[in-house]
Design goal:
Layout lengths: L8 H13 L15 E5 L2 E4 L4 E4 L2 H4 L8 H11 L12 H18 L3 E6 L2 H15 L5 E5 L8 H5 L16 E5 L13 H13 L10 E2 L4 E2 L1 E6 L15 H11 L3 E5 L23 E4 L11 E6 H4 L17 H15 L3 H22 L3 E7 L2 E6 L9 H11 L4 E3 L2 E6 L2 E2 L5 E4 L7 H20 L1
Parallel strand pairs: 3-16, 5-6, 5-9, 9-10, 10-11
Antiparallel strand pairs: 1-2, 2-3, 4-12, 7-8, 11-12, 13-14, 14-18, 15-16, 17-18
Length: about 475
């Protein structure tokens, strides 16, 4: 147990009730005791004692546009007063217009006709994408995915997530994945540039298709046993690892040669987290399927979905009833999603996010120069990473990062006379990476504040 305070007597009562009545299977207690929060706004959340915490992870990148964003909240409120509910077998304007917006954008960017299919969240949308992929490949249930990749914890999604921990007690349900090394340059072979290492990883993957005895390819029929490669263009739970810019272009060439679909999982990195609507846009490739969720509704509604090429999802090959969820394409979610697209079209979100990300990354690089325990920093837009290591700057140090996270949650740091806490997220293969996903609306003074709070945590960690 840490010495994080339980704020009030009411909190103690609530935590006792949680311990007795709540399943722990649907949550994660990163700190003990868990914090209880009462309100939120912008980049901040407040606990039951009205202690403010600057949040640099924003609900795992679900709240890209800031807590209680007035414009998006108002879109939800207005929809409640008009058409708050309608069964998914009926149509409503929001579903059609949001689908059009996503599909037209994909046509303009990738030159591909496609359609949009909704569900209630990221994992469920991954499940739908697996149906699309299996249907298009005559039922193939084997997939490629990356080491360090995370796609969700439903049965199908956990089968293509690289952590055995999520499958151990449940086994496999249809899908199986062959996990391929991701170009994690900081922990890759020495003596290669980032781009050289990216090419090396692609070449190692391409070896699987040299002969039939590599186990995936039948040269006599020109068929692969695997249907698709599931990629997070920027790894999320794996630690916000940024691959070299040549990597996906070279990988897609191999996939196209062998009839393997590329599914881009944008659930965590979509909706301008990296400075573009989809993070795959940075890499000059055409995905076959895009899966999205989280920030589509700024966390106000569990709406997710997929975009897929016309050949994969048109009604002749994927007819009505191929999947179903009672709350798919619900009008509250589509209303917020439409407003999000309108809002981001009115300013150059890409340029804004890239400028803020560059500023934040420069601040992290300054901290890296002053604190040897920071082994690596990197970022793309406002998806940023800070890898905490031992004194050698390389050996993963999970314990120190755990200490920093708990210290941040004490709410006792002081900057310019203001007492604050700091909310950080932990990721990475060794759980030693601070994965930073601040609000895209974060101000430059708030970035400076976040860096000052990080500095205080680093000082505590190195002098304890």
């Amino acid at each position: 147990m840490s010495d994080i305070r339980i704020a009030t007597a009411e909190d103690r009562i609530l935590l006792d009730k949680e311990a007795k009545y709540c399943s722990y299977g649907d949550t994660v207690h990163y700190i003990e005791p868990p914090r209880i929060f009462s309100r939120c706004e912008g980049s901040y959340v407040w606990d039951t004692e009205d202690q403010a915490y600057l949040d640099l992870q924003m609900w795992y990148s679900a709240v890209n546009f800031g807590y209680a964003n007035p414009r998006l909240n108002n879109a939800l409120k207005q929809q409640i007063d008009t058409l708050p509910q309608i069964a998914s077998q009926y149509l409503h304007k929001g579903k059609i217009e949001l689908s059009e917006m996503i599909a037209v954008d994909a046509k303009n960017k990738f030159g591909l006709d496609g359609r949009v299919h909704f569900n209630v969240g990221g994992s469920q949308s991954i499940e739908d994408s697996l149906k699309v992929v299996r249907n298009a490949s005559n039922g193939k249930s084997l997939m490629f995915a990356f080491e360090g990749g995370y796609h969700g914890r439903t049965l199908g999604a956990s089968s293509i997530t690289s952590s055995f921990r999520y499958r151990r007690r449940y086994g496999h349900f249809g899908e199986r994945a062959n996990f391929i090394p991701f170009p994690y340059h900081f922990r890759g072979p020495k003596g290669m540039t980032k781009e050289e290492y990216g090419s090396h990883c692609v070449q190692q993957f391409a070896r699987l298709f040299e002969t039939e005895y590599n186990g995936v390819w039948d040269p006599k029929t020109n068929q692969c046993e695997y249907a698709a490669f599931y990629v997070e263009p920027i790894q999320g739970t794996g630690g916000y690892v940024i691959p070299p810019m040549n990597f996906y272009r070279e990988l897609k060439h191999v996939l196209d040669q062998h009839g393997i679909l590329m599914v881009s999982d944008e659930i965590q990195m979509g909706f301008y987290r990296t400075g573009k609507l989809w993070s795959i846009e940075h890499f000059d490739v055409q995905p076959d399927v895009i899966v999205f969720g989280k920030a589509l509704t700024n966390g106000l509604n569990p709406l997710g979905g997929i975009w897929a090429r016309e050949e994969l999802i048109n009604p002749k090959v994927f007819p009505p009833g191929s999947t179903h969820s009672t709350f798919a394409s619900n009008p509250l979610g589509t209303a917020v999603g439409l407003e999000m697209f309108k809002m981001t079209s009115e300013v150059d979100y890409g340029a804004m996010v890239m400028a803020k990300g560059k500023y934040f990354l420069e601040g992290l690089q300054d901290l890296q120069k002053r604190f040897p325990i920071i082994g690596d920093v990197d970022g793309l837009g406002l998806a940023l990473r800070c890898e905490i290591c031992g004194p050698d700057g390389f050996t993963p140090d999970k314990a120190t990062l755990d200490y920093m996270v708990e210290e941040g949650m004490k709410g006792d740091m002081v900057v310019d006379g203001q007492k604050l806490g700091l909310i950080l997220d932990v990721g990475g293969y060794y759980k030693n990476v601070i994965t930073l996903a601040p609000s895209l609306e974060i101000s430059y003074p708030e970035i400076d504040l976040g860096l000052k709070l990080l500095e205080q945590l680093l000082v505590r960690a190195t002098t304890r």
